Amino acid sequence: MDIKTVIDKLKSARDVSDAELEALLTSEDEDAAAYLAACAREVREKIYGKAVYIRGLIEFTNYCKNSCYYCGINCKNTNAQRYRLSDEEILGCVKEGYELGFRTFVLQGGEDPFYTDDKIVSLVREIKSVHPDCAVTLSIGERSEISYRAFFEAGADRYLLRHETASPEHYAKLHPAEMSWENRMNCLKILRKIGFQVGCGMMVGSPFQTTENLIADLRFISEFQPDMCGIGPFIPHKDTIFKNEPPGGLRLTLKLLSIIRLLVPDVLLPATTALGTIDLEGREKGLRHGANVVMPNLSPVSVRDKYAIYDGKICTGSESAKCIKCLSNRVASAGYEIVVDRGDRKRI
Ligand code: SAH
Asked: Of 95, 122, 176, 235, whose CA is between 20 and 30 Å from 249?
């Protein structure tokens, strides 16, 4: 099978067979990989030009009631030093971020019942009333339709909920029995129905993941047509049962970024912190493979290293202003440019 023909088909018709996707995912042909990246860049630049959107990530709690096997802040990890940010601290991060040019704030956390619907609603309202020109994204896991509706009505614009894996069997190997793949997938549908801009996504190279699983992920992404898609390599955390598992690979992650760009041309696709963690220039490489978003950390430096979902996470030491400076240089070195913008999806 000629891989370049598969890539052309993917680009022009977004329609390839499982066998073709498998060939593309497992191919070690460097020329084909470079061609795939060039096609992804071309599509991305046609829609988004050279702009890179920034999202200010505020990791406001590392308490979590779940025990996802891969995650360092799962509730079973007694070594995790737990923290919660107060409303004032969160609003302080938003203020600082606004001054630095952020127009989107992502509130992410473990599934922490301390933050009741009312608390989230009042936080979202407050941010939106101070900064009506900004988008608020929530990434706080699975909740009920009633809760999601309340968040939306309070003004939240977007919701990130990675599907983690499109295979229920694979899901069951990454999560305890009380967690449900069906529920997670259903949450994504509800979020879409309510009117959120929705993000899904998965880890690359998570334990037990097969090429077949990745093909199922790509099929799901292609069918769901998310507004955003967060993918990054799995990275082991020392206090989890997956501590000795190998991390996901750089090349495969980059390839998947490019494929997703071709499958959903106008998707908002971050070059993730995890990608920057497995490779010093991972985020730059991500941008050169079709990514168009970066999500620098705006959390107070005092808590940054505590939101340790995996080992070795980068950018836990510097102040936000320093981080954004460093990132601007990195983005420029990749040939792109950070813009001050809400960074909504440009529908084609
Ligand atoms: N509680 C929220 C936020 C989870 S953290 C939720 O359930 O959506 C955000 C993402 O980090 C997760 O969805 C997962 O895909 C990723 N993640 C967790 N542990 C990881 C690890 N060890 N390596 C790489 N990514 C990880």
From this structure: 176
